[in-house]
Design goal:
Layout (H helix, E strand, L loop, with lengths): L4 E2 L11 E3 L4 E6 L2 E7 L4 E8 L5 E6 L8 E6 L4 E5 L4 E6 L6 E6 L6 E6 L4 E5 L5 E4 L6 E6 L6 E6 L4 E5 L5 E6 L6 E6 L12 H7 L11 E6 L3 E6 L4 E7 L22 E2 L7 E5 L5 E5 L8 E3 L13 E9 L3 E8 L3 E6 L4 E7 L5 E6 L6 E6 L3 E6 L9 E4 L7 E6 L6 E6 L4 E5 L7 E2 L8 E7 L17 E6 L4 E4 L9 E2 H9 L8 E6 L5 E6 L4 E5 L4 E6 L6 E6 L12 E6 L4 E5 L1 H5 L6 E3 L4 E3 L6 E6 L6 E6 L4 E5 L4 E6 L6 E6 L6 E6 L4 E5 L12 H10 L10 H7 L16 H5 L13 H4 L5 H4 L33 H5 L5 H17 L22 H18 L2 H11 L2 H11 L4 H6 L5 H17 L3 H10 L3 H10 L3 H11 L5 H16 L3 H10 L3 H9 L4 H13 L3 H17 ...
Parallel strand pairs: 45-49
Antiparallel strand pairs: 1-57, 2-3, 3-4, 4-5, 6-7, 7-8, 8-9, 10-11, 11-12, 12-13, 14-15, 15-16, 16-17, 18-19, 19-20, 20-21, 22-23, 23-24, 24-25, 26-27, 27-28, 28-29, 30-31, 31-32, 32-33, 34-35, 35-36, 36-37, 38-39, 39-40, 40-41, 42-43, 43-44, 44-45, 46-47, 47-48, 48-50, 51-52, 52-53, 53-54, ...
Helix pairs in contact: 11-12, 12-13, 13-15, 15-16, 16-17, 17-18, 18-19, 19-20, 20-21, 21-22, 22-23, 23-24, 23-25, 24-25, 25-26, 25-28, 27-28, 28-29, 29-30, 29-31, 31-37, 33-34, 33-35, 37-38, 37-39
Length: about 1450
């Protein structure tokens, strides 16, 4: 294996991508490989790899149990979970229970067999290592970011989600959720359990506990859990309380060179680690890569301490992703951290200092070069946009590296040290840039102003060639920098003046060697160490050797037949002279050739020599050669690297393979021999690693072949090739995890690059290079993304167009083209025939160019022959149906009108043909434009068709076209732009469009059309169709502005009523105040607002006026209404005109009021009641007592019939506080003495209901039974309406619910109860009850008859209809059984005829009663009798006369069974 190695960078944005076991073996997931690293307090060493995942590794965990610490588990985006033996580096088992990318995995610290994993869909899977069984749970439909198993309870697992939720599940109960911890606002990056069970106090002082929300006393039953989130906070959660007990916010730390703005949300990954045996300390990452130690017992700035403060540069320079801990012998605890800066650091937890740093690589290793001056100084060019310079000879730090990124914005693909100047390193990049770094300074590099168009493959220092003039005598450097790139050009740069233009050496080669033909693109160049000659490799496989300084061509080596990838001259120092002129070359044909050019160099020939045989041929590689290096310690010993994934050492002279190195996972790209150790070679490649290995320790001698080669290729193809959809999107989107095996192009793929394929499209693996480079925050801000921004998988339904072969366009001349695909003999004969035609003047016999077998010669002969060829081609196109090609052929031949006519007939006109039509005249152009418009209509391109009609001044036709296809908006725009404002067609368009919009429900747009057309009435009506408050308000405003007064009033009134229903009184009054004619409706809303305020509606109002707020109330509501009218609206008894009471009452009388119903909402009921109350107050102002009394009765009737009992009782109290309806007002002395018969009846009814409410109030207040909630029994209630039944049965009304009964002696009735005992109304109510009872019996009898006629019904119908019959007879049967006096009821034997006779008799009795008795009813007289008799039983509050009258009425009219039962105790 290898000696030293720089591994691939750990994967970013993973919650647990590294872990370390008790023996100090660190596992790190990088790309799809897990690197194993032996760590100690002083050093580290890459020990091996675990290879097998097909996508990048997302999580990794060791088993921490004794005897199993070498067993580990990993998860991947390929959806698999794999168990590994880290000692033997073999796969134990693979589980594929997940259907989505796995986000996290953890090996339980309590159960040595339990492993828990979670994927991005939210599925949690338990894996049992000993049995191989799995169990899946789905606790939450969220994206899992992290999870961790409890160290105290084996079945408890904490799961962190992307949305900030933390869930604790019990895997022993099928994933049952035990806690949901809410508090974080963004994704959970990490979770850590407290190392000790129980919940001990964090704070040293109780006041600190209170201030920080912690716990002051410990709790031994629970456990603490720490979480880190993207919301920049950490929280400590108590499982006993199920909530956070402490919140830690990350400190903003100043870094050298810039400050942190707290207002700017920085890139962050917040990892937390709870050290073992340190329950009061917590380690976390921070914004800029710092590690922070938190002391949970302290507060303020004393709470946290930074790692690595003892010396400069110890901390990471970018955010930290993972921290894992290991305790070595001697109880020394180390922390291992991985970061975005591509470094793995080891920390001593006791001193908080960095022990060592291991650099890692985030891209392909494209180039490596040892300095010829600084011994052991190795430069690396990597695909992560950085150059590393490694001092490989240092003894204190094995990995003493420096990184250079300034001025580099692309992959570093070429490196070369200056042959004499120490520290001068030139580099080339993927984007064609060439620069020079001074590695011993901190200055940015010098960048050449001459850029290559494609990737720079090769750099070389050599002597200057013309036109540049150099020379040591002048104090100028004696070396030029040469660069070769993918476009095949070699540029010469002046290192002392890189801002100047570089020169292309091809011009000098042409001039010196008198070359007229095109030079083959160059792919590589190497100067001989003595600077006398230069070898240049070309794309066609030829190697040209030129002599300096004029670049005279000495020889051309034509042995390779594929692109030259690499050239190397044998070193000149210490080697025999016969080896100085050996040139090794590698190409894409896998064979290495060595050429001896000593004769050509020492004795330059007069004319170039062509060499076709090599000096030595080295065969063994199975794929293209990418790089090579001669040993500086041996004679004629060469190492080569190849796409076959191996490095091969050769002894060139005997053509012997010495050893083969196979330690890389993927193809190799660069190699160099150690300048100080003859046995050490360094290689780098696609697997993101640089490896040092020894020749003497290799077990293989040649590259693998046969089955071995197949196995190696399978190993190399562990990652399927994944083409990136859009590389630019990846760069802009930020840091995505490294993708797997792409298809890189390196030095070995220069042919493809020269043919137009850039290196930047080469490797899909080297993705990290352009997105994850450790640049400063100002540069790296553009790369800030989250882990989950991975390029989405390609849809199975949509093929990737980038992978499809580009379709070749159809030939315009297929007939003649096909003639060029004949046999070679025929093609050669064509040349003889064409030469005869061109030079002899007369074609051979039977040869007519452009016709028959010689149709293709028309292209090379005269114009007439070309026309003949066109005719033949047109016939072919017509037969094939390619009429468009026929049109173009006619166009080319000058028959423009014929071409247009043909295209019109075929319907194949296009913009190009129409643009040519004016060449044939105005008539042709106009006719063609009109035909093209018709064609566009058939293709549903109406706007384009209208535009072409406009071009020929067919305006009205264009408007009709747009209107007919419902493009009204465009048609209106066109008319308004081109025609006068009073054009009739404009109004017609607006009206048509408005109708369409109105049908589709776009009322506001339709209204705008109506307004534009001058139809304001229609505009307001269409807006009002929505019928909501905003629409009605807008419609009223539109109508008012437009002069539609009546419509405006109607709409405003509708809107105001809707506002009143939601009790937005202020908005309703404001709306009506804009129109003086709506004054009476404002008075109505004023009355309604006062009524709602005084009735104490439990639902709060939206807005109200100050005058409606509760305050010192007057004696009655009518007094308050009158006062507000006079103060706010100027309406009084003395006002006249439009504000006069008479005019206002007339206007209000026209407002209809429906019949009261129990289905009307209470607020609507109050609105109708307030309408009648408004009319009553206006009648009061007019001194019309009769109308006043009628309207008052209507106001009370609304709340009595449709509202709750308590609201009706409260209204009667507000109207008549003294209980006397004759006293109407005390503030404005007024008594009610109606004279009309109807008014008197209304007054009597109103007085009866006032006394009725007072009767119940007296009962509730003084009855001793109400105290224990035991009023009259259920049978004592009257069979009246449901509201009153509830009250009689002991229910307390809402208004009186707060009244507490006063036990003791009941008081005397303070009102005259005789008004409740009306003989006429008792008789009327008894008759009405009889009518209802007979109607029920008739209905039941008819139902039974219909069933008998219909025969036996379905059992389901019997069950459904049974309750209906039972309902009508249940009361009768129960009453007959419960009452001894009832006797046998005769209803059971009654017939339809007898019931009809009884119904006629009762209806006649009802008709004989006075109309006023039926029009103005009283409270249920029987009910009142029962209440009065009940009160008289317990107190003398009811007079003897009243009791006797109540008993008489009960005996006479209390015939209902329930009443009879209730009255037994009073009548006997």
């Amino acid at each position: 294996m290898h000696e030293r190695s720089l591994p691939a960078s750990p994967n970013w944005y993973c919650s647990r991508c590294s872990d370390v076991n008790s023996s100090g073996l660190l596992g790190v997931g990088a790309k799809n490989i897990i690197y194993l690293i032996d760590v100690s307090a002083s050093s580290c060493r890459v020990a091996g790899e675990l290879v097998g995942h097909k996508d990048f590794v997302s999580s990794f965990s060791f088993c921490q149990h004794a005897g199993q610490s070498h067993i580990c588990v990993s998860s991947s985006n390929d959806g698999t979970v794999r168990f590994w033996d880290a000692d033997n580096k073999v796969l134990i088992r693979e589980h594929a229970a997940h259907q989505s990318p796995v986000a996290a995995v953890h090996w339980s610290p309590l159960d040595q067999n339990l492993v828990v994993s979670g994927d991005e869909k939210g599925v949690v899977v338990c894996h049992w290592h000993n049995t191989g069984d799995t169990a899946s749970f789905f606790p939450e439909p969220r994206t899992i970011f992290c999870l961790t198993c409890s160290p105290h309870t084996w079945s408890t697992v904490a799961v962190g989600y992307k949305d900030g939720m933390i869930v604790l599940i019990d895997v022993s109960k099928k994933g049952e959720v035990t806690h949901r911890l809410r508090g974080h606002e963004d994704e959970i990056h990490s979770l850590a359990w407290s190392p000790l069970a129980g919940e001990d106090a964090f704070f040293s002082r109780p006041e600190d506990s209170e201030a920080n929300g912690g716990v002051a006393a410990g709790d031994a039953s629970g456990c603490y859990l720490a979480s880190g989130s993207k919301d920049q906070t950490m929280r400590i959660w108590s499982l006993t309380k199920g909530k956070a007990v402490m919140t830690l916010k990350l400190p903003y730390l100043k870094k050298r060179g810039h400050t942190v703005d707290p207002g700017v949300k920085e890139r962050l990954w917040l990892h937390v680690h709870w050290p073992r045996e340190r329950p009061t300390q917590l380690v976390s990452s921070c914004f800029g890569g710092e590690l922070v130690m938190w002391d949970l017992t302290k507060t303020g700035k004393q709470r946290w301490t930074l790692f690595g403060t003892s010396s400069e540069g110890q901390n990471h320079s970018r955010i930290v992703f993972n921290v894992s801990a290991v305790r070595l012998q001697g109880d020394r605890e180390l922390l291992i951290s991985t970061s975005m800066d591509r470094e793995i650091k080891c920390w001593d937890l006791a001193s908080l200092d960095c022990c060592w740093t291991l650099p890692t690589l985030g891209g392909f290793v494209y180039a490596l070069a040892f300095s010829p001056v600084g011994a052991g100084c190795l430069a690396l060019g990597v695909g992560d946009n950085m150059i590393r310079v490694w001092n490989t000879l240092t003894t204190q730090n094995q990995y003493d590296t420096r990184s250079f990124w300034q001025g580099i914005k692309s992959k570093v693909t070429a490196l070369v040290w200056h042959p004499q100047k120490e520290g001068s390193l030139s580099f080339g990049t993927d984007d064609g840039k060439v620069g020079i770094y001074d590695v011993f300074s901190n200055r940015p590099p010098q960048i050449s102003s001459s850029y290559h168009r494609k990737t720079v493959y090769t750099l070389a220092w050599g002597p200057p060639v013309p036109p540049m003039s150099f020379g040591a005598a002048g104090g100028k450097p004696s070396y030029s920098l040469y660069s070769c790139a993918g476009e095949g050009v070699i540029l010469q740069h002046d290192p002392s003046r890189l801002s100047g233009d570089a020169s292309d050496i091809d011009r000098l080669i042409r001039d010196t060697n008198s070359i007229k033909h095109k030079l083959s693109p160059h792919t590589d160049l190497r100067w001989k160490p003595d600077g006398k000659v230069v070898a240049i490799g070309n794309e066609d496989g030829c190697i040209d050797v030129y002599g300096a300084p004029a670049l005279k061509l000495l020889c051309s080596i034509q042995q390779h037949h594929k692109i030259i990838n690499t050239l190397r001259w044998h070193q000149g120092h210490g080697a025999p002279p016969e080896l100085h002129c050996l040139l090794a070359s590698g190409s894409s044909n896998a064979t290495v050739y060595v050429h001896d050019l000593r004769a050509v160099i020492e004795n330059p020939p007069e004319s170039p020599v062509v060499m076709t045989e090599p000096f030595r041929r080295l065969c063994g590689h199975t794929s293209k050669i990418t790089s090579m290096a001669w040993s500086p310690h041996h004679e004629a010993r060469l190492v080569t690297v190849s796409y076959d994934g191996t490095a091969q050492v050769w002894d060139v002279l005997p053509e012997e393979a010495l050893c083969n190195y196979r330690g890389h996972n993927g193809y190799l790209l660069c190699v160099d021999w150690s300048p100080v150790d003859p046995d050490a070679i360094w290689t780098g490649g696609k697997d993101f690693t640089l490896q040092e290995w020894r020749v003497s320790k290799q077990e293989f001698t040649k590259p693998p072949k046969g089955k071995k080669m197949v196995d190696l290729k399978e190993k190399m193809k562990a990652n399927p090739k994944q083409k990136r959809k859009n590389k630019k999107a990846s760069v802009a989107g930020g840091a995505t995890p490294p993708e797997m095996n792409g298809d890189p192009v390196t030095g070995g793929e220069k042919a493809a690059a020269a043919a137009g394929q850039e290196l930047s499209g080469e490797d899909e693996d080297d993705e990290v290079g352009s997105t994850n480079s450790p640049v400063p925050p100002s540069v790296s801000a553009a790369f800030d993304t989250q882990r989950r921004s991975v390029t989405p998988a390609k849809s199975k339904d949509k093929p990737d167009l980038a992978l499809l072969k580009k379709k070749k366009p159809r030939s315009m001349l297929p007939v003649s083209t096909s003639m060029d695909h004949r046999p070679k003999e025929d093609l050669l004969q064509d040349c003889i025939t064409l030469a005869s035609v061109k030079h002899s003047g007369a074609p051979p016999a039977g040869c007519v160019p452009g016709q028959g077998e010689h149709v293709h010669l028309g292209l090379f002969s005269d114009r007439q022959a070309l026309y003949r060829m066109f005719e033949a081609e047109e016939e072919g196109h017509m037969e094939a149906g390619h009429f468009e090609s026929v049109v173009y052929l006619r166009l080319w031949s000058g028959d423009l009108q014929g071409a247009l006519q043909l295209a019109t007939e075929r319907g194949e006109l296009n913009d190009h043909l129409l643009s040519l039509a004016p060449m044939a005249g105005f008539e042709v152009w106009s006719r063609t434009a009109e035909a093209f418009a018709r064609q566009l209509c058939l293709q549903e391109q109406y706007l384009k068709a209208a535009s072409h009609l406009l071009s020929i001044n067919r305006l009205y036709q264009a408007v009709d076209l747009l209107r007919s296809h419902k493009l009204y908006r465009e048609a209106i725009a066109l008319v308004k732009a081109r025609l006068p404002a009073d054009e009739p067609v404009l109004k017609e368009l607006y009206s048509c469009w408005a109708g369409v919009l109105e049908r589709d429900g776009h009322f506001s747009s339709a209204a705008k059309c109506y307004l534009a057309a001058g139809a304001s009435f229609d505009a307001a009506k269409v807006i009002a169709r929505k019928s909501d408050v905003p629409s009605l308000r807008t419609a009223a405003g539109v109508a008012r502005i437009s002069g539609e007064a009546s419509l405006a009033q109607s709409l405003a009134l509708r809107c105001a009523k809707d506002l009143a229903l939601v009790q937005d009184w202020t908005a309703a009054q404001d709306l009506l105040s804009s129109q003086d004619s709506l004054l009476v409706h404002r008075l109505h809303l004023c009355t309604a607002e006062l009524l709602a305020a005084l009735l104490s509606d439990p639902q709060p109002c939206v807005s109200s006026h100050p005058w409606a707020s509760p305050g010192p109330r007057p004696s009655s509501i009518q007094d308050r209404v009158r006062d507000v009218w006079e103060e706010q609206f100027g309406v009084s008894q003395t006002s006249s005109g439009q504000r006069g009471a008479a005019a206002l009452r007339r206007e209000l009388t026209s407002v209809e009021s429906p019949t009261p119903s129990a289905n009307i909402p209470l607020r609507q009921v109050q609105l109708y009641s307030s309408l009648h109350l408004t009319r009553a107050v206006l009648s009061w102002l007019l001194d019309d007592a009769g109308q006043l009394m009628t309207e008052l009765w209507q106001a009370a009737a609304w709340l009595r019939d449709a509202g709750p009992f308590s609201v009706s009782a409260e209204l009667s109290r507000l109207l008549f506080p003294d209980g006397d309806i004759s006293v109407w007002s005390r503030k404005h002395p007024k008594t009610l003495e109606p004279t009309e018969e109807e008014a008197k009846a209304a007054a009597s009814s109103l007085q009866a209901f006032v006394q009725y409410y007072r009767l119940y109030r007296h009962w509730w207040t003084h009855s001793s039974q109400i105290q224990n909630r035991v009023p009259l029994s259920a049978a004592d209630s009257s069979p009246g309406d449901g509201v009153k039944d509830g009250v009689v049965n002991g229910g307390v009304s809402e208004a009186e619910g707060s009244v507490c009964p006063a036990p003791g002696s009941p008081g005397v009735l303070d009102f005259d109860a005789s008004v409740l005992l009306s003989e006429h109304h008792a008789a009327c109510q008894a008759t009405q009850r009889s009518v209802r009872e007979i109607q029920e019996r008739l209905a039941a009898l008819v139902l039974q008859h219909s069933r008998a006629q219909g025969g036996q019904l379905h059992p389901g119908e019997k069950e459904a209809d049974g309750p209906i019959v039972q309902t009508s007879t249940a009361r009768e049967s129960s009453d007959s059984q419960g009452s001894a006096d009832a006797g046998q009821r005769p209803e059971d034997s009654e017939t339809l005829l007898s019931l009809s006779t009884k119904m006629s008799q009762q209806q006649k009795l009802l008709a004989d009663l006075p109309d006023t008795v039926k029009m103005f009813p009283h409270p249920d007289v029987v009910e009142c009798c029962l209440v009065l008799l009940h009160l008289s039983k317990s107190s003398p509050s009811v007079s003897e006369a009243t009791r006797q009258r109540a008993k008489d009425l009960l005996r006479k009219h209390g015939t209902d069974p329930a009443v009879l039962k209730a009255s037994q105790r009073f009548l006997h």
